[in-house]
Automatic annotation (TrEMBL):
CDD domains: AtOTU1-like. This is Ubiquitin thioesterase. Pfam families: Peptidase_C65. Residues 73-288 form the OTU domain. InterPro entries: OTU_dom, Otubain, Papain-like_cys_pep_sf, Peptidase_C65_otubain, Peptidase_C65_otubain_sub1, Peptidase_C65_otubain_sub2. The active site is at D81, C84, H281. Belongs to the peptidase C65 family. SUPFAM superfamilies: Cysteine proteinases. The lineage of its organism: Eukaryota, Viridiplantae, Streptophyta, Embryophyta, Tracheophyta.
Amino acid sequence: MDAGNAGEGGCEVQRPEPTDDEIMRQQNDIQAEQAGKVPFLGDKEPLSVLAAEYEAGSPILRAKIEVLSEKYGEIRRTRGDGNCFFRSFMFSYLEHILDAKDEAEVAHVLKNIEQCKKTLLDLGYQEFTFEDFFQIFVEQLESVLPGSGSTTSTDALLEKSRDPSTSDYIVMFLRFVTSGEIRRRAEFFEPFIVGGNCPSVDQFCKTSVEPMGEESDHIHIAALSDALGVPVRVMYLDRSSCDAGKTEINHHDFIPSSCLLKDKGLETVEPYVVLLYRPGHYDILYPK
């Protein structure tokens, strides 16, 4: 018997059960320790690593990964710290600008950023509370354009995106943009928010959007996509069953109204920001 567990007469001393707060603190400490070992953004990897990860797992997931691999060839993992959606969006979008040299897209999003600033000011935010975050993102955006005077490469962009002084600031920029859009269109978003633990849109933004580490769902994605005018595709890797024995991957395209091309005879656009969602986490996907 462990001497530390024995009392007088050899009787075992019963240790008190940990409280809920103690259990939560212990879980948070474990998550923080694990997160510290994983970069904000990983290297690009073949999608086969995902198949290997689920080799002994659910047959449904294995089948869906096989279907996913027909169109997507690579994945870039993100740290699971509650900011994974925003980091995935940030890097995927900037990488697209870098690869496509899309000056028109930069002009388009800079115009929307100015509107986002105005939205926050109209809502009563003080400019000093968000201006540094906006400035860092604009600097990153302009640095990936050709002729910007920088020699940014994908590796350099990745290094910057792993630096907390840049990455966390851009995450906060995206959180402010998201919060501003939800508040601006409170009447639209309210039915999806109010109820349960959220009595109001304002409370939702204060507790579930603006703080670092708060996880994102379809509300955050829709608001950010609309505010910046950037289409986003989310592929869902989950255990939902498939009809008639046919394996399919559910996905949803978040398409801002500003991106609809009906005047050109097209109903929608093909999103270049493509994310993989597994319950509670987002990574970046790359088409073949």
